[in-house]
Amino acid sequence: MIQNPSNLSRRALEALALQEYKESRLTKAELRRLLGFKTRAALDEYLKAHSIMLDYTIEDLQQERRDLYRLRF
């Protein structure tokens, strides 16, 4: 007997979403929205906890540098 059906539903959603992300059928932004994370940092922590390496490109670094520069002023 299933103790908590909503917990099972959530685990199933997470498993499917992570698999779709790993196979590049979901973007990181889509995964974040689907799983309900409010920030990229929260999603990054979640991915790290599930041993999923982040796909961090030079473009990501450049965007973060622009964002930090903009926030400084």
Can you walk through the features of this model?
This protein is an all-alpha fold and 73 residues long. It has one domain. The protein has helices at 5-22, 28-35, 40-49, 58-72.
Topology:
Elements: H1 5-22, H2 28-35, H3 40-49, H4 58-72
Helix pairs in contact: 1-2
How is this structure best summarized?
The chain is mostly helical. It has four helices and no strands. Helices cover 70% and strands 0% of the residues.
Features:
0% strand; 73 residues; 70% helix; mainly alpha; 4 helices
What share of the residues lie within helices?
55-70%
- Largest β-sheet summary: none
Percentage beta strand: under 5%
CA radius of gyration is 15 Å
Question: What is the N-to-C succession of helices and strands?
Answer: HHHH
Overall SS class: mainly alpha
N-to-C terminal Cα separation, in Å?
Answer: 57 Å
The strand count comes to: 0
User: What integer is the average pLDDT?
Assistant: 89
Count of helical stretches: 4
Instruction: Give the low-confidence spans.
Output: none
**What's the number of domains?**
1
Please state the overall shape, judged from the principal axes of the Cα atoms.
elongated
